[in-house]
Structures are given as structure tokens and as C-alpha cells.
Design goal:
Chain A: InterPro entries: PhnJ (IPR010306). Chain A: Its EC number is 4.7.1.1. Chain A: Keywords: 4Fe-4S, Iron, Iron-sulfur, Lyase, Metal-binding, S-adenosyl-L-methionine. Chain A: It catalyses: alpha-D-ribose 1-methylphosphonate 5-phosphate + AH2 + S-adenosyl-L-methionine = alpha-D-ribose 1,2-cyclic phosphate 5-phosphate + methane + 5'-deoxyadenosine + L-methionine + A + H(+). The complex is a heterodimer of chains A (291) and B (185). Chain A folds into two domains: 13-223, Rossmann fold (3-Layer(aba) Sandwich); 235-281, Ribosomal Protein L24e, Chain: T (Roll). Chain A is α/β, with parallel strands linked by helices and 291 residues long. In chain A, α3 (76-89) links the parallel β2 and β3 (92-93). Helices cover 25% and strands 17% of the residues of chain A. In chain A, the strands form three sheets. Chain A has a seven-stranded mixed β-sheet. Chain A has a three-stranded antiparallel β-sheet with strand order 7-6-10, with no helix packed on it. Chain B is α/β, with parallel strands linked by helices. In chain B, the strands form three sheets. In chain B, strands 1-11-10-7-4-2-3 form a seven-stranded mixed β-sheet. Chain B has a three-stranded antiparallel β-sheet with strand order 9-8-12. Chain B has a two-stranded antiparallel ribbon with strand order 5-6. Chain B is globular and about 45 Å long. Classes of the chains: A alpha/beta (291), B alpha/beta (185). Chain A binds chain B through residues 7-9, 13-14, 16-18, 20-30, 32, 34-35, 57-62, 141-142, 144-145, 177, 179-180, 197, 199, 201, 214-220, and chain B through 9-11, 13-15, 17-18, 20-21, 24-26, 51-54, 56-57, 89, 110-111, 113-114, 116, 118, 136-139, 159-160, 164, 177-179.
């Protein structure tokens, strides 16, 4: 049921027009951060106000929405945003990646390959990949203009000099179409290869920082690296303890006071789907834990 | 009397925007978009104007379209002002009249390439034939019936600055962002 006191998808039409123009320019200039007049939303910054505004501007009544938080459909952030759009836009919702036409995500890309008919909306806390290296917006803007990313390479080099490898595990910077360096949002670097030439359109919204950017389908996205230290998508060296998957991104969960731990798929839909199909991991015996 | 606009603006504008987004994200794809007729514009162009233009965006109307009726319709439904090409966010018209003023439209600045105009070209026909397109949004290559003009190559060469085009014909829409490489065949 829609809350009739609100406009369709919450935002007023003037705001949607402004966001829609920003999204179109973002799509036309892949990886470039388009400034937009981010609105206050009925949730705090850090809870996905940018993603919610992009989703609100894109939703149609025919969409099927999926919302994930770190891969999970059932965490507070995901549940509250999903309910928000059920109430204000009356859209269908799903937890299944393949049934969704629009997926809003905080910090993961689903394991199941995306299709041309899907749009991913990422929640972005800090859209500027250079921000912690150079705090001045005037300077980072000039660096993007000139495609001058020496500073970022120095940072990655220092990682190697200190740790022997590039220690950035999430929000790993990418080069888009050999012009703009872009923050992929804090997805694990395990997910970075999924950005490259993805058949799905990817939109990024940063509410507090007032930026929207985009990757059109089939855009070339390269994770920054060095010839002698090539980029590696990494994950915990385990199989999922519930479904046994060896190729999915895993969360480590502490299960007792004695240092016991288990590894489970971060993508809950992927894990539940595998368990429903009969896959069983180390601790997943029995079916009582299957939704 | 002023021609009608959307009857259920939030939902119809949402659908129109998704069509426009689909077109801009996949250059060469021809999408259907529903808009009002009887405005002096094609339904597709009318839907774009209603979905994207407002009091903050200047519109340049080509002489072929510049009638009191259309001006009144745009003003009444969007509040958008009319401007010279230099101040335009959107330029509306047939290719013959848009092409000469392309250099006068804002193409953005190197540090703010998003501050560029979006020409909306009214076409006699729109088909998946003709110029070969490659670039972001296109898996291998696409074809689109673009006017034969060196303007598109010059536009792409100015990246990151440049214009992003919509092409409209009846209820159909295609787009050509600045990143698309156009080869005339």
C-alpha cells in the first residue's frame, strides 16, 4: 500500500528532474562525479541517502526492487530502504537477484551475474577516490581534469613498500575508460572485476557529498595496479560453512567466546539458493537453517 | 488552448526517464517513450521536455519549432525559459537547424564537463542502419541512422567536454553521448 501523503517514490518532481539530469550526464561521462543538489532524506547520512535518491529518480511502478546491505537482504539498512519504497512507490520487491530489475546495494555486487535488464544503484560514502590523499576539492578536480593520478600510484606503491602487496581490500580505485579514476564505493576488491564490461547499468549516489556518477553497460573498468604487482581479487581462503561455495565472497563470523569462527557467504540470496539446491557446507548440515 | 501534458506526472515521467536513461546508457538502442501529442513536438521530444526541463533549464527552440503555441505549452507545463544557444541546457529542433548552432551550445568545461547542453533532434526517421557506433554502453558495435556530419567526430574528440544528443521520431528515442565513437559507413 502506498502512503498517499507522499509523491510517487517520495521525492517531489522538481527534485527528480534535477537528479535525472545529473544521472544522464553521469552516464554520458563515465566515471566523472556530477555534482547534484542532494536533499535531506528521512534517514541519516551514511544510511544510503545518495543511493535512495538515485533509486527514487529511477524507479517506475513496474520495477521489482532488491536492496542489499553487505550482500544481505535481511539487515536493518536493507529492510528499511526496501520498506521505504514499498510504502512510497508501491513497487514489487524481491530477495532474488535474478528477479530484480533495480538493485540498490551497500558495499557488494551480487554473486549471480547481472543482466542487461538490471540497474545497480550503489550507496557511496566518499565518492572522491583522491580525497584522503588531497583534501582540496579544487585540486582533486584539476587532477581529474588532467587525468593526473600520480598521487594514487604513489599511495599504492607505498602500500607495496610497507606491506609487500597492495593492502587496499575495499573501495579499491578503478580506471574508467582510461580517463577517470573512480571509487567503486566500498565494495570488496573481490567485486571489482564484476564492474568491467558489466551488462548492467551501474549508478552511484553519494548523498552527503552530493555526487552522482555512473558506469554505462560494457564500460572498460580497470583496477589500478603495477606490471610487477598485478591486481588480484581476493577473498577469505575458505569455503562457505553453510552452502560450501568456494567461489563466493565470505563474511567471517565469531561464534563463541573461545575463538570459534565460521565463514559464510556475504550474499544471502546466493547462499540460500545454493542450500535450497542441496549444497551443504561444513556447518550447514540439516535444513532447519534454510529459509 | 494549451496542449495537454502528462496526466499522471510522477509515474509517466518515471517511465519516460527510464526510457531516456536506457537510450543514453546504450547508444544506438531505439526505445519507445510515451508522451503527449498535439504540442508541436513529437511525443518523444515532448516527453523529454516534460521529464527533464524546469525553471532552472534554458531551452533554445529552432526557428522551425518556434511558435507561440509551443512556447506557451513549454512555459505552462515546465516553467523553462527560452534562451540563445549559448545559455541552453536543451536545444530542440531538426538537424538542419541545430547543426549550425552546435558550436554555440555550452559543451562544459574541462573541470565541469557535465555543464553541457543536450540537443534534442527531431528526425524524420530513426533506424538501426547507417553510422557504426562503438564505445561505453555498446557491447560490440551498434548502428544508428545519424545525419552525415563531421560534427559527431568533433564532439567525441572534445572529450571530456561535449554535447550529448537525443534523437526523437514519433514515439521513439535514441541517444548519442559524447563518448560514442561514430564511423560513417
Amino acid at each position: 500500500m502506498t502512503d498517499q501523503a507522499y509523491n510517487f517514490a517520495y521525492l517531489d518532481e522538481d527534485t527528480k528532474r534535477m537528479i535525472r539530469r545529473a544521472i544522464l550526464k553521469g552516464v554520458a561521462i563515465p566515471g566523472y562525479q556530477v555534482p547534484f543538489a542532494s536533499r535531506e532524506m528521512p534517514m541519516p547520512y551514511g544510511w544510503g541517502t545518495g543511493g535512495v535518491q538515485v533509486t527514487a529518480a529511477c524507479l517506475t511502478p513496474e520495477d521489482t526492487l532488491k536492496v542489499i546491505d553487505q550482500g544481505a537482504d535481511d539487515t536493518t539498512n536493507a529492510v528499511s530502504i526496501r520498506r521505504f519504497f514499498q510504502r512510497t512507490a508501491d513497487v514489487a520487491v524481491t530477495e532474488h537477484t535474478r528477479d530484480a530489475t533495480l538493485i540498490q546495494t551497500r558495499h557488494r555486487i551480487p554473486e549471480e551475474p547481472l543482466t542487461e535488464d538490471q540497474i545497480m544503484v550503489f550507496q557511496v560514502p566518499i565518492p572522491e577516490p583522491l580525497r584522503f590523499l588531497e583534501p582540496r576539492e579544487t585540486e582533486t578536480r584539476k587532477m581529474h581534469e588532467l587525468s593526473d593520478y600520480g598521487l594514487m600510484h604513489v599511495k599504492l606503491y607505498e602500500d607495496i613498500a610497507k606491506n609487500g602487496h597492495i593492502a587496499t581490500a575495499y573501495d579499491y580505485p578503478v580506471m574508467v575508460e582510461e580517463h577517470y579514476v573512480m571509487s567503486p564505493s566500498p565494495i570488496p576488491r573481490f567485486d571489482n572485476p564484476k564492474l568491467d564490461r558489466s551488462p548492467a547499468l551501474m549508478l552511484f549516489g553519494a548523498g552527503r557529498e552530493q555526487r552522482i556518477y555512473a558506469l554505462p553497460p560494457y564500460t572498460k573498468v580497470r583496477s589500478l595496479d603495477f606490471e610487477d604487482h598485478p591486481f588480484e581479487a581476493s577473498k577469505a581462503d575458505h569455503a562457505c560453512d553453510l552452502c560450501g561455495a568456494e567461489d563466493s565472497y565470505l563474511d567471517e563470523v565469531i561464534v563463541d567466546d573461545a575463538g570459534g569462527r565460521m565463514f559464510v557467504c556475504s550474499d544471502t540470496d546466493h547462499c540460500a539458493g545454493r542450500r535450497a539446491a542441496g549444497h551443504v557446507g561444513r556447518l550447514g548440515a540439516g535444513t532447519e537453517d534454510v529459509k | 488552448m494549451t496542449a495537454p501534458a502528462f496526466t499522471d506526472t510522477p509515474r509517466e515521467a518515471a517511465r519516460a526517464f527510464r526510457a531516456a536513461l536506457d537510450a543514453m546508457a546504450r547508444p544506438g538502442r531505439i526505445v519507445e517513450i510515451a508522451g503527449p501529442s498535439g504540442t508541436g513536438l513529437s511525443p518523444a521530444a515532448a516527453a523529454l521536455v516534460l521529464t527533464l526541463a524546469d525553471r532552472g533549464t534554458g531551452i533554445w527552440l529552432a526557428p522551425a519549432l518556434d511558435t507561440p503555441g509551443l512556447r506557451g505549452w513549454i512555459t505552462f507545463h515546465t516553467g523553462a525559459g527560452f534562451t540563445a544557444p549559448e545559455g541552453a541546457t536543451f536545444a530542440l529542433g531538426p538537424w538542419e537547424e541545430i547543426e549550425p548552432i552546435l558550436p554555440r551550445l555550452p559543451a562544459g568545461q574541462p573541470d565541469y564537463p557535465d555543464r553541457s547542453a543536450t540537443p534534442i533532434i527531431e528526425c524524420q526517421s530513426l533506424s538501426k542502419t547507417g553510422a557504426r557506433l562503438t564505445g561505453p554502453g555498446i557491447r560490440d558495435s551498434a548502428r544508428l541512422s545519424l545525419p552525415d556530419s563531421p560534427a559527431f567526430a568533433a564532439n567525441a574528440a572534445a572529450f571530456p567536454c561535449g554535447l550529448d544528443f537525443f534523437f526523437t521520431c514519433g514515439a521513439h528515442l535514441a541517444a548519442l553521448p559524447r563518448t560514442t565513437h561514430v564511423e560513417v559507413c
